[in-house]
Please model this.
Amino acid sequence: NLRRNYYSREIIEDSLKRTEIFKCNEDELPILCEFARLQEKTAAAYYEYQTVKLIRKNKKAIYKDIKAMEKLLTKKPEKAQAIADDYHEKILPLMARIRENTDALEKVTDRKIWPMPTYSDLLFGKD
Model:
């Protein structure tokens, strides 16, 4: 977190070496560029590349979980308890992962092109 004085150059440099994806805002980008010894244009391109990578990873995971859920939903146990158990043990975890990946996509997608209402839209109406 670069917004406070709780970081050190060593910690940030070590973290940058260990991570595949990082999130920063426009104010933090020049500081990270300096630490990583990158020009700001290079860092911005790297940031965009990492964002695209994140989008692809989450999209792939969402489609995989949707297919798995569709497959499970075609199997219909006969007893109510078996149906409830299947939903609890198999469907709900898939739904949670889909939501987690969708939330990650929402954070990096411009609101103008996000196809679904955000939580803010639902609670307070669309801007």
User: Anything to note?
Assistant: The mean pLDDT is 81. The CA atoms of residues 73 and 91 lie 8 Å apart. The helical segments are 9-18, 29-36, 40-74, 80-108, 119-124.
